[in-house]
Amino acid sequence: MSLPPETELSNPMPWVDGATRVFGVIAHPVDHVRAPMVFNPRFAAAGLPHIMVPINAPSEKLERIINALRAMPNFGGLAVTIPHKMPLADLCDSLGTAAQLTCAVNAVRFDDDGTMHGDNFDGAGFVAGAIGNGYDVADKTILLIGAGGAARAIAAALVEAKIGKLTIANRSLSKAEELASLLVSKTGFANVHAAALADCDGGDADMIINSTSLGLKPGDALPLVLDAVRPDTVIADIIMVPAETEWLAAAQKAGLRVHYGRHMLDYQIDLIGKFIGAL
Prior knowledge:
Elements: H1 5-9, E1 21-27, H2 35-46, E2 50-56, H3 62-70, E3 75-80, H4 85-91, E4 94-95, H5 97-102, E5 107-110, E6 116-119, H6 122-132, E7 141-145, H7 149-160, E8 165-170, H8 173-187, E9 192-196, E10 207-210, E11 234-237, H9 246-253, E12 257-259, H10 262-266, H11 269-276
Parallel strand pairs: 1-2, 1-3, 4-6, 7-8, 7-10, 8-9, 10-11, 11-12
Antiparallel strand pairs: 3-5, 5-6
Helix pairs in contact: 6-7
C-alpha cells in the first residue's frame, strides 16, 4: 500500500521503511529498558536502516517468542536483560567464551537461517564503565550482591581486571557458593568468597555492587543497609531505570560516591552492536 506523499514527509522516523532491519531488547517487565533510547539515535545518526524495539516476554512465553523471532527474516538480534539472560543462553545454538563461563547472555545474534549465537558483555561493560568514570578496580576489595546472570558476568570481568578480593553475597548461600566455585575452577582466581547476604555489612569493601533486581520497583528492600560502610566505599548499581535507585539515593545522602547502572550499558554499546550486526 502506498502512502500519500504528505504522510511520507511527516514520518518522524524517516529511516524506518519496508527494508528496515529490526532488533530488539527483551525483558520482563520491559518498561525499564534503555537500549532503544541508546541504539536508535545511533542508527539514525549513522544512516543505518535499523530500528530497536522493546520486547516484553513473560518467562513462561519466552521460548515461543524466541521461536517466532527466529522465523522473521528481517530480525537481526537482541539485547537481553532481566530475567532472560540465563534462560536465553540455553536456547542459543552457540555461545561465546564469556557466555559459557557465566551461563548467561546479554546479546544474541540471529543468522538468516534462524541460528542463534549468544555472548555476554555485561561484565566488560561494567568494568570499562568504572574505569571510564575514574575508578580502577584493580587490586580492590569488591562485595558483589547477587549470584544471577549479571553477577556471573561482572564477577568474571572483575577477576580479569585483577581485583584483589571478591566476596559474593546472596540471599541463597548455595548460589553464592556455586558462583565462587565456578570462578575458581574457570579462572584460577583464589581470593573469592561466598557469603549469605544477611551476614554481610560491607565494612571492608572498596566497592559494593548490586547486581540484583532490587530497586526496579518503588518500595523494594535495599540490597544492603549502608550503616557499616566506609566513607570511601563506592556504591554501584546495575539498574538503569530508575537511574537513581532508592539505594543509590541513600548512598548519596550518606555522602558516599555512587556509580550508576547506565554506565554498564553505555560502555558496551559498541561491543553488543557489532556482535548482533547492528553497528
